[in-house]
């Protein structure tokens, strides 16, 4: 058996929600060093809510979020990357009027003060199309290019753990392929990642192990080395269908914040 991995991101019994709606119920999960972990779930399962609690945009009602032993639970969003966790939100949150260069430059200023693992040159090598778009305002880029800028910006924060909320959503197959290749490269270089996905085959391709979230609870875990058996057994489909298929209500603006 291989030695246990060093623990990086560690969520213990995290609960969160919006007003009277409790969405996450005692969610515990972890990501180890050089490990890629998936978080799967149907629409409305609470995946993005979990990401917003990790990024600091949504208050944790109970439980803890720790990284490398440091308690991040009550930190404001701008403090999270300084502790080594970079989050790519589904909305990407780029500054539309700023160029690609300016969006990336901001990350260099806001990231961790340490010897950088990624330079601008590195991220442009990962996403060559951004070189020709370097002086273009982000709002004029395609959705796929914006996703690339969002991932590149997160890498320039010099994270130990990269959290990606459904990076393939709404993108053309060719762009998804490019992004999958970059994530595979990062994985081979030992980047720790929490990959939120609805696409099971993409998660199986990219992750070492995975959790399934249904109605705000972890209902199933795919252990390391068991992806093939899990897919063949149909257990994942059962976990998905066992309560995960819930209609999604219209979303009013986020009310709770710890900014
Ligand atoms: P999807 O894959 O469709 O993005 P998800 O798994 O990311 O789904 P969430 O977006 O976290 O799910 O939503 C979980 C629940 O929280 C849903 O019932 C949703 O309606 C509710 N919800 C999400 N955002 C808000 C909000 N800003 N205010 C109120 N309720 C919300």
Quick structural overview:
With 259 residues, the protein is of the alpha/beta class. It has helices at 47-55, 100-110, 120-126, 129-132, 143-156, 173-188, 200-206, 227-233, 235-241, and strands at 7-18, 21-32, 36-40, 62-67, 70-71, 85-88, 161-165, 192-197, 209-214, 217-222. It starts with 6 loop residues before the first strand and ends in an 18-residue tail after the last helix.
Could you explain the architecture of this structure?
The chain has 259 residues and is α/β, with parallel strands linked by helices. The protein has a domain at 7-91 and 157-246: P-loop containing nucleotide triphosphate hydrolases (Rossmann fold), CATH 3.40.50.300. Helix content is 32%, strand content 25%. It contains nine helices and ten strands. The protein has helices spanning 47-55, 100-110, 120-126, 129-132, 143-156, 173-188, 200-206, 227-233, 235-241, and strands at 7-18, 21-32, 36-40, 62-67, 70-71, 85-88, 161-165, 192-197, 209-214, 217-222. It has a six-stranded mixed β-sheet, with helices on both faces. Strands 2-1-4-5 form a four-stranded antiparallel β-sheet, covered by helices on one side. The longest helix is centred in the C-terminal third of the chain and has 16 residues, at 173-188. The relative contact order is 0.19. Bound molecules: adenosine-5'-triphosphate.
CATH architecture of the domain at 7-91 and 157-246: 3-Layer(aba) Sandwich
What do we call the CATH homologous superfamily of the domain at 7-91 and 157-246? P-loop containing nucleotide triphosphate hydrolases
The average pLDDT score comes to 88
- Helices and strands, in order, run as EEEHEEEHHHHEHEHEEHH
CATH fold name of the domain at 7-91 and 157-246: Rossmann fold
Query: Tell me about the biggest sheet?
Result: 6 strands, mixed
Q: Strand fraction band?
A: 15-25%
Number of strand segments: 10
CATH class of the domain at 7-91 and 157-246: Alpha Beta
Q: What is the structural class?
A: alpha/beta
